Amino acid sequence: MIGAHLAQRLKEAGLVWKPALGDRFAIPDRDLDEEVFVLSNMTIEVHTMPEGKVIGFNGTTEWALDDVEIDETIWLPREDQLRELLGGTFRSLGCDPDGYEVRIDLLGEERRFAGATADEAYASALLHLLASITQ
User: Distance between CA atoms of 1 and 17, rounded to whole angstroms?
Assistant: First the structure.
């Protein structure tokens, strides 16, 4: 799983979260920075309100949260979600004793991105892809 710092960089680069069951997320700046939450139809759900989407905490929770706006959260995409976001640019994932490497093809040019975990390598490649789109 990528950390909140890398997830925040993806968000700032323009990654848009479309919440789905099973998605993990963090809530920074509320003394919950180290907690990871998971969307579930049992306890944590996305509700569409007139003012926008909010994440509702149903029932009793340890932190007594009622809801939090999507903009106040950071999506922590899984490895498979990161790979899917790379779309047709993704070529391969490899590993060696030093970590993982993702290869993508961007406009006919191969790019390589390393990470200590596969998730981090995918996230680095996605950061590059998002940056190339906004240029």
Answer: 16
3-53: pLDDT as tens digits: 999 999 999 999 999 999 899 999 988 777 788 988 877 677 788 888 888
Q: Which of 122, 77, 130 is nearest to 99 (CA)?
A: 122
Q: How far apart are CA 126 and CA 132, in angstroms?
A: 10
Region for 52 from its dihedrals, namely left if φ exceeds 0, alpha if ψ lies in -120 to 50, beta otherwise:
left
The token pair that represents 65 in the structure block = 């949260």
* Structure-block tokens of residue 108: 């006919």
Q: How many CB atoms lie within 10 A of CB 73?
A: 20
**pTM for the complete prediction?**
0.82
List the beta bridge partners of residue 105: 110
Structure tokens at 96: 């060696």
Provide the Cα torsion 9, 13, 18, 19; round to 10°. 10
Based on C-alpha coordinates, what's the Rg of the chain?
16
Residues with Cβ within 8 Å of residue 74, at least 6 apart in sequence:
4, 7, 8, 11, 25, 26, 27, 28
